[in-house]
């Protein structure tokens, strides 16, 4: 009898890229109180010197932190820490998402949470929220075409869906989970899908568009189904990979 095959283990506390590592470091300082709500973050140049990264990495990390609701940027003034939403007791530490099984468990939670959020968002979204969703999807498509950061607009779109429920607990929970909920920040999702990165992300983009179109026409059942399909596709790809 063959021994059970263990799920592949990913390195702990080793970010997939420099930007994610910077997000985790600054996020930990904000949640831990070393950087308090209202404090101004160090300048881009100071962060570059401390962490030994480029300006592009710093800007991508700050963009992800802003999408997660941990900071806000005032152009020409600086970036300031915000109060972490909903208290600091519950959050997902990206370093703890170390195996494919960990990602699968998180996807199960997201399927339950975000499918219902999409349904409520379709009924309750405002025109302004719809415009923000459109901008996030356009940013995703632009990054896809240009080979840039797709994680930030991806998470921003899912967070906007949660905010459009008009139920702050959906948004609070999504903010706590942060950009670590996007599987490709922890694993090579395209590899598991057996396709190149561009083709994989193009399919993700189409799934996002299906969700958006259902929310646009205020089709609650359609939005629920589109979100469930989107997240279930990710789950099934990973299950097959195991």
UniProtKB/TrEMBL annotation:
Q: Which Pfam families match?
A: FCD, GntR
Q: Where is the HTH gntR-type domain?
A: 16-84
Taxonomic superkingdom: Bacteria
Q: State any single GO MF term.
A: DNA-binding transcription factor activity
Recorded hits in CDD domains, A to Z, give: WHTH_GntR (cd07377)
Q: Which UniProt keywords apply?
A: DNA-binding, Transcription, Transcription regulation
State the protein's name: GntR family transcriptional regulator
């Amino acid at each position: 009898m063959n021994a059970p095959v263990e799920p592949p283990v990913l390195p702990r506390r080793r970010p997939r890229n420099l930007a994610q590592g910077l997000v985790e470091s600054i996020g930990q300082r904000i949640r831990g109180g070393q950087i308090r709500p209202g404090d101004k973050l160090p300048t881009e140049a100071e962060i570059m010197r401390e962490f030994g990264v480029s300006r592009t990495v710093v800007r991508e990390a700050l963009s992800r932190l802003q999408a997660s609701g941990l900071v806000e940027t005032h152009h020409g003034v600086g970036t300031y820490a915000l109060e972490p939403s909903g208290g600091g007791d519950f959050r997902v530490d990206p370093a703890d998402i170390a195996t494919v099984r960990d990602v699968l468990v998180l996807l199960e939670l997201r399927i339950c949470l975000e499918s219902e959020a999409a349904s409520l968002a379709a009924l309750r979204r405002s025109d302004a929220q719809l415009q923000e969703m459109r901008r996030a999807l356009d940013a995703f498509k632009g990054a896809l075409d240009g080979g840039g950061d797709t994680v930030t607009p991806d998470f921003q779109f899912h967070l906007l869906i949660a905010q459009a429920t008009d139920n702050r607990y959906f948004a609070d929970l999504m903010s706590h989970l942060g950009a670590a909920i996007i599987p490709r920040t922890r694993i090579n999702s395209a590899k598991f899908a057996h396709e190149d990165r561009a083709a994989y992300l193009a399919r993700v983009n189409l799934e996002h568009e299906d969700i958006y179109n259902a929310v646009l026409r205020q089709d609650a059942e359609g939005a629920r189904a589109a979100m469930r399909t989107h997240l279930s596709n990710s789950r099934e790809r990973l299950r097959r990979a195991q």
